[in-house]
Every structure is written in structure tokens, then in C-alpha cells.
């Protein structure tokens, strides 16, 4: 089965072509509302959700395992955390749906300021930039033009980081813009919010038991319909009580990484995926001792710990190329 690392494509030429047509068009990023209708979890996991989408909420999880052991997990998420999570979810969903507009909205005021500064320090007898459209369509060897493109490349990278997305190559046409959620960035930013839950899981009988219970908890979250143009952050997943495959994988990774940080985690998905990658599977180094389907990544053996086994078997049997993305 072929595996590859994610191909990080430069979107400079693609973005500049698209951005020229958008530079004079104002962009207003609308975001989807958060429904107040929630489904309750099973008796083993109960979540108290707020009426207002930015209110704090708490989680209380109780269950009895097959050996008759009682377990309880609880946590509280304050308003600031919920608000940050919702804003990230809206930002990501808009960026996945409209990558050019999202990047354009971030870039335009910064490039306008850069042009103002470049022109201010450029002597009157040297080439100056009249406006952004001129800068894009008249790339040359002048000092002003080179400074503009340096600023553009820097702000483009800043835009990806701010929007929490990463560039990719579109599987159908390399000339089309393609972005995905930056799973590694989201992983590092949200794992701290789940430290309380991970600490409680770590107090259980063993690492393997803690991982099993973490998987059970994540599996109990009702499935959200797979969409390539939206992504819910881990806290939003807990709040809305639904998640698709990559959202569940990231939530589970955020917990397991704190139970045993010495074991490497990989996200695994088909190379044909775009946007919010689905289906996706989470894998952990097989040395962890966690039970599950085995798979080879970079000549090392890993255990699949999330996602549909049926879908994975179908992908493997069809010899579809899989991309492995390291979270840490």
C-alpha cells in the first residue's frame, strides 16, 4: 500500500491570479449559526449544553466497564474557551468553503499598508507602486516590486497560520486552489483545553485502559455528516455533540497525546481528499500496545485507533494512495 507525506504546494501563482479579480470586491465572511437543538448522549455520557452558543458548559461522563469498574470523567469549559472555539470553527469553515476570499480578506489591508511604506521609502526618481492591482500585474526587478513580493509571501504564510489552514494540491486539477485544516496546528492549540480530561483518564488502571476509554467516549459522539467545506474544533465537537471522522480523530489525538506523549500519532487519509479531509483515521505507534488494525507508515508499524475499518479496508484493497500526516 503506497503512503506519502502531504505535498505542500505553493499557492503564490494560483492565489495571485485569483486575487487580482477580487482586490476591488469587498468580502464579508458570513458564518453558519449554531443550532440550539441538541441530541442527548447515551446514559453513559451526559453533556449539559448552554442555551446560548457562547455560554460555558460542563461535561459529566459516567460508565461501568466489562469488569464492573466504575469510571467518571467531568470537565468545565468557560465562556472564553467556547467563544474561541466557535470563532475558530467558523473561520475554518469559511476558509475551506472560500479559500481565496478568506486569504484575500486577510491580505488586502496588509498589502495596502506595505505598498504605502514601500513607496514612502522609495526615492522619487525610482520605480514606485501605484496600487495592489499594479503590483500584481507588473512584477519586475525594481526594488519596490521585489519588496512587495517579499511582503506578499510573508503575509500569505501569516494568512495560512491565522486561518489555521494549510495549502495542498487539488487532486482533480493542480491549478485549482486547495487548502486543508492545519491539523498539527489545531492539535497543539487545543490539547491544553483537554488537559483536565486527559489527567482524569490517566488516573485509570493503565495506559491501555485509558486509551480504550478515550476511544469509547469519542466513538459515542454521534456522527456528523461528512463535509469537505467545514470543520469543528475539539471544543465545538463536545459542545454540539456531533463530529465527522477528522474531527473525532483530532479530539482523540488531543487526549491520547497527553496520556503517553512518547508515542507518535499520524493522521491518515486518501490522497484524493480535499477540504476537511474525510474519511480519516488516527494511528499510534504499535509499541504503545494499543489493540487495533496494523498499518505500515514510513517503514514503521502503527495501530489504527479511530475511523471506519470498513472504509479503510476498501481503500487498502483498491490500492489507493494514502497520505500520512504527523501531528507531533
Shape: elongated
> Care to count the β-strands?
11
Class by SSE composition: alpha+beta
Spans of at least 5 consecutive residues whose pLDDT stays below 50 are 4-10, 24-52
Cα(first) to Cα(last) distance is: 23 Å
Biggest sheet statistics: 6 strands, mixed
How do the SSEs run, as a string of H and E? EHEEEHHHHEEHHHHHEEEEHE
Strand fraction: 15-25%
Helix content: 40-55%
- With strands numbered from the N-terminus, the spatial order across the biggest sheet is 1-11-7-8-10-9
Taking all Cα atoms into account, the compactness measure Rg is: 23 Å
Mean pLDDT: 81
| Number of contiguous helices | 11
Please provide a written account of the structure.
The two termini are 23 Å apart. Residues 4-10 and 24-52 have low confidence and may be disordered. The chain contains eleven helices and eleven strands. The protein has helices at residues 12-20, 79-97, 99-121, 132-137, 143-163, 183-190, 195-202, 207-220, 234-240, 245-259, 309-317; strands at residues 3-4, 45-48, 57-64, 70-77, 165-167, 179-181, 265-270, 281-285, 294-297, 300-304, 322-326. The chain is of the alpha+beta class and 328 residues long. Helix 2 packs across helix 3 (99-121), helix 6 packs across helix 10 (245-259) and helix 8 runs antiparallel to helix 10. The strands form three sheets. A six-stranded mixed sheet has the order 1-11-7-8-10-9. The chain has a three-stranded antiparallel sheet with strand order 2-3-4.
